[in-house]
Every structure is written in C-alpha cells, then in structure tokens.
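Troubleshooting log. The previous structure file for this entry was overwritten by mistake, so regenerating from the original sequence record. Sequence copied from the archived sheet and checked twice against the printout by T.R.
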Amino acid sequence: MRILLVRLRLIGDVVFTTPIIRALRRHHAGAHIAYLVEPSAAALLRGNPHLNDVIVAPRRGGARRLLDDLALARRLRRERFDLAIDLHGGPRAAWLTRASGAPMRIGYDMGWRSRIYTHRVPRSPDLFPRHSVLNQWDLLAPLGIGHCTPEHDPVEMTEDPAAAVRVTERLHAAGVHSGHRLVVVHVSAGNEFRRWPEDAFCAMIAALVERDPQCRVIVASGPSDAEAATRVTETARSRLTRPESLPPLLEWDLNELHALVARAAVYIGGDSGPLHVAATTETPIVALLGPTLAERSRPWRDSRLPSAMVDAGPLPCRPCDQRRCIPGDFRCLTRITPEQVIAAVEHLLR
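Regenerated output below.
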C-alpha cells in the first residue's frame, strides 16, 4: 500500500499531524508512507522513522507556483499512491490531493473541495474547545483507526545529531555550560494576537536571572521577529547586574531549536510552531496563551511531562478568530503578568 499525507503551511499544524504518521505505520507496517509539505516545515519530518519519503512543495508566487504545482502533480502521479489524506483542507492542498490520482482520497467536508475526496469527514469549528491533534485525527476514521491520547500518540520530531553538535558548540562559545540552568525564551508568534508584549518578556527574563545566578537565558525567534528578539535581548541585558547571564542573540534553524530546547531546563513561549516543537522534547514548558484555549493548543504529549498553561483567565472575547481585537487592547495577552510566568517557571523547576 502506498499512502500520501498532505499538510501545507504552518509548523505547529505539521507537528500536530505526527501522531497520525505513527498510527498509520502501526496499522500498515509494510506501507510506503510519503508526506507532502512546504519548505518551512520539512525539517520537522526528515528523519521521522515512520516515513519513507518527504516531498517538498515549493512555495513561490505567480506563474512559478503554477509551474511548480504542475511538475509536482506529475511526480505524484508517477508515485501511484493508493490513498491520499488531505490534512490541510486549503485549495492548494486539495488540488494536489486530487492530482495524486489516488483512488481513495480523504479530506474535510468543506464546500466545493468536498467533491475532490472519495471520503469526507466533518471538520470541527475553529473556535471549538477541542485539540487540533484530535481534529486532524478525525481523518483516520474512514480507515477504522480509533481513539488517540497524548500518552499513546504524542507529537514527535527526531533530533538531528549534526544540529545537536552545533548547538553544544555554540552554547559553549556563548559561555553556557552544563552547570548552568538553561532557559529558552521564544518571543515570536504567528500574529499579533499571540505575541506577549516585549516589556513583559524583558521584565520576566531579568527577574529569572537575578533570582538564580546559575540561570542562563537564550532568547530565540523566527526570522520575521528577529528585530523584536534583538530589542528584548538588549533591553533585558541593560537591566542585569550579570549581563553574561543573557548571551547575545543567536540564530537557530528548526533542527537546532529542537536540539536547544531538548537541553533546556524550561521552555517559555507563546502559542506558535516552536511551542509545539518544544512539546516533542521532555523539557518542561510554560505556554503563554492569548486568544487560544488550552483545550485546543496545549502541548500534546505525555501528561507526566510537566507543562504549565498561563493565560489571562476567562474573558468574554476569548477565544476569538484572531482577525480583529474587539476590545482593541489585546487584553488576553497584556493581562498575563511576568509574575505569573515566573511563578509557573519556578513551580516546574521544583
């Protein structure tokens, strides 16, 4: 049997599909399983022991996108897949699922795209308090694959040995050694609705470092938030009596970030892709949740691994569709205090 999985775009959503990969391998031990993904998330899947192939869909615009997709469609046809599962549901993912020529095609029951699939599954509403892993797991129902739990099917990402070596070398060069308590703070978020204020990050980092002489904080971000990460690092360092506790900003690719978090005492970050990459490690996690609910976005891993969800509490506008802040002040984020986050970190470290 030859199986194609299709999930484009966001890193966190690709992480959420990794339990499905393991489940398919468990139920179809001898199958050839391929995964079609865009470049930004491909590193998550390379090295996955349950996959036979990772196919990267170029993400270019205009006429080049059309040429890319036609070439990709021809490749998928040559692969002669028996089953294609569209884990995304967007127009491009649906078209590529159809272009694969697989006789069995599973996808969400969503408008005109429903006609593309031979088996259609209802899609849970975006704001429904149900975890994203379970929403995507629903697509396995036509295959008779049943219940999913984080203990039995956690998210996963295989550590890249070369990236792990690079991380060790770069930490050593930055003066961070095995005797230090390493804290990774990720300041990026997919949009402004998930981005904790920079001043709050600065206050939290300064307080953590001043309380623990062995604490070393590594600030990380995605490429689009590099300037914010620089500002947070420089401002926080200016407040420290021991600036060496906060090394200068370093850049990390996805494999390096995974290896870095795996070595940390705790990870702190908003509801974004890196949070869910962190969930593939055993490192304690403090998640800063703005408009999203813990029921939908909490780290999907064994409950015995420590995690803390920090939010602003019940608000009439939470959750929201993250298109317009109705109160206008992003209170779901601004009401999360540095003291709340510090308390969560200290609780996990104990």
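The chain has two domains: 2-143, 161-349. Archived copy saved in two places this time.
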